[in-house]
Amino acid sequence: MFNRILIPIDLNHADKLEKSVSAGANLAKAEKIPIVFTAVASTVPSALAHTPDEFRAKLDAYAASQADKHGVSASAHAVFAHDPAAELEDALLKAIDETGADLVVMATHVPNLADRLWPSNGGRVASHADISVFLVR
After folding, report:
1. Comparing 25 with 117, which gets the higher pLDDT?
2. 136, 71, 81, 79: which is closest to 103 by C-alpha?
3. Domains of the chain: total
4. Contact predicate 103/6, CB 8 Å
5. In the beta sheet, which residues pair with residue 106?
6. Secondary structure of the chain: what % helix, strand, coil (to 5)?
7. Are strands 35-41 and 5-8 parallel, antiparallel or unpaired?
8. Residue in 20, 24, 84 with CA at minimum distance from that of residue 55
């Protein structure tokens, strides 16, 4: 049914993404298809990584650990943006095109009053992507 699953990851909050990662991994395992873990970062040094290469290495390590944990094939794809918070949706849409993913499995929060004015990141990706997007609360 699907050929490749893209799972957006925030490495600063990876411990809070277990539900969406598990959902994506279960789909990947059932369909025998690969996962691409994608993260968006700035090229500016941060507490997480001082260089883009260091960020890529941490994302690669995360993908490898999740592949081992869930028994799936996984790779990593880093996208760099000037302002990751402001450009997140565009960066994720770019990653979809670059990786050839045909399904996104993405964590999201329970909607609240603010979402009536500003939709969530997942909601914006779902409304602009031309592929299926599975939002996991």
Report:
1. 25
2. 136
3. 1
4. yes
5. 135
6. 50, 20, 30
7. parallel
8. 84
Q: Using one digit for the tens of pLDDT, what is the confidence trace for 41-90?
A: 999 999 999 999 999 999 999 999 999 999 999 999 999 999 998 999 99
Token code pair at residue 110: 């329970």
Q: Do residues 49 and 2 lie in contact, with contact meaning Cβ atoms separated by under 8 Å?
A: no
The per-residue pLDDT for range 89-135, each reduced to its tens digit, is 999 999 999 999 999 999 986 555 555 556 677 878 888 899 999 99
Question: Which residue type sits at 50?
Answer: H
For 62, the domain range is 5-136
Q: What is the CATH number of the domain that holds 51?
A: 3.40.50.620
In the sheet that holds 74-80, the strands lie side by side as 74-80, 35-41, 5-8, 103-107, 132-136
CB 2 within 8 A of CB 21: no
